[in-house]
């Protein structure tokens, strides 16, 4: 791949463009808002000038409701050798293209399983897709050359290709992406009118659960409108679990010992099933989940402290697998939780203490 056209310069489109441009591909940027394309170009994602001829791959990164129309326009104009979209739903756009009577041999659907709660070109990064699954949903007629272009795109973005049927993909993302967004928003909504004394007690648990609730509602309305049935099916199962859990908790309030025992068993059941489900979530780079040990360090709110602790960990020869930061309510300090290989934890703890860091029990 030498040339690409990115249509839609939001988070995903600009991130893909940054990755391609950084690896020597000439990228042309197009957006219904020219200012967005200019911003992406200023970030180094390519040029907002129109290509002089046909490019190798056109990447359509617009909201699901507009994918089919944007693809059809580009395909009818002969803009590229191959066409690919990155929408978070796949079945609907594919059926729309088929209904238009278009030749789908140069088209392949795709969905990079990566994102942020922020949107727009300024949120984009070249490493957004690194190590993350990138689903490809070829049609019955997708040309081999186009599949190879898509695989090259995934490789240049350092993602992991996964080939799926379009409708199977939509059922999968309803479970692992779309429903979590709604559940996160529902939990966060409980905080809107909560007493200030309760909100001040928020710790890492509530921050983890509600992080994606900060996402743009307009974007999610478009996504959910394109995949309502599968999401409703998953939520129906969640609702059944909620009903059972509510009944179990009410039973725990009973004066009857047998009812309290049944209530405890009901709560334990959902917690244990949660353990089992969580254990299936892939870890780093799609591998089986690893059991890391946490080294918790008290850190001040002074500029440069995070950079210093990472540098000190690097000097200790320890790779930080994951990190979490918990701010202390009302104080200019926080707790940095460094997740590392269990065998490396003692050496890291000793090294950080010798360099003046104060460690805490996480």
Report what the structure shows:
The chain has 362 residues and is of the alpha/beta class. It folds into three domains: 3-164, 3-Layer(aba) Sandwich (Rossmann fold); 172-278, 6-phosphogluconate dehydrogenase C-terminal like domain (6-phosphogluconate dehydrogenase C-terminal fold), CATH 1.10.3660; 293-360, Alpha-Beta Plaits (2-Layer Sandwich). Helix content is 46%, strand content 17%. It has helices spanning 11-21, 34-42, 64-76, 91-99, 144-156, 166-189, 196-199, 204-210, 217-225, 228-251, 257-278, 305-315, 345-354, and strands at 3-7, 26-30, 55-60, 80-85, 107-112, 133-138, 160-163, 293-300, 322-327, 333-340, 358-360. The strands form two sheets. It has a seven-stranded mixed β-sheet with strand order 2-1-3-4-5-6-7, with helices on both faces. A four-stranded antiparallel β-sheet has the order 9-10-8-11, with helices on one face. Helix 4 links the parallel strand 4 and strand 5 (107-112). Helix 3 (64-76) packs across helix 4, helix 6 packs across helix 10 (228-251) and helix 10 (228-251) packs antiparallel against helix 11 (257-278). The longest helix has 24 residues, at 166-189. The protein is globular. 30% of the residues are buried.
